[in-house]
């Protein structure tokens, strides 16, 4: 049966099921605020730098680094993702951000991962901080965890933003940061 808006009950149930699955995952929603986000960010940052040594050098050259310790995504045709993290400048948290994503299409599954955005220019960092809702787009260069040992030395040209996704658990076919929207939050 199709509703007046063209959605079937099955599609509606699939979307609400994905939302329920997403809500059941421990991604920091309803947490103790800034202290818990900071603890997760510091732990993730330490893991990142010890597991992928080149990222420490990359961070030292970056104007700022957004660390997202845990993004949870789930989907069954309709899907979504959510997580919270912190923007660090010179090793100090300056702002907190949420990352959200809504998707529709060929997808099934759930996954959790961490990621970091290295803002390599003051201009890119300023644009991110001034934006009421910044979305990962074509100006983001993706690095793989396999490049983690050498990425800091490989990146000689100035890229505005370098993204590294790591610590992935679970699986959703075709998952990327494309379409993830970042918004400043007050935890």
Automatic annotation (TrEMBL):
Coiled coil start-end: none
Protein's name in the database: Twin-arginine translocation signal domain-containing protein
NCBIfam families, per the entry: TAT_signal_seq
Species assigned in the record: Pseudotabrizicola sediminis
InterPro entries for this protein: TAT_signal, TAT_signal_bac_arc, Ysc84_actin-binding
Residues annotated as domain Ysc84 actin-binding: 102-181
Superkingdom of the organism of origin: Bacteria
A Pfam short name: Ysc84
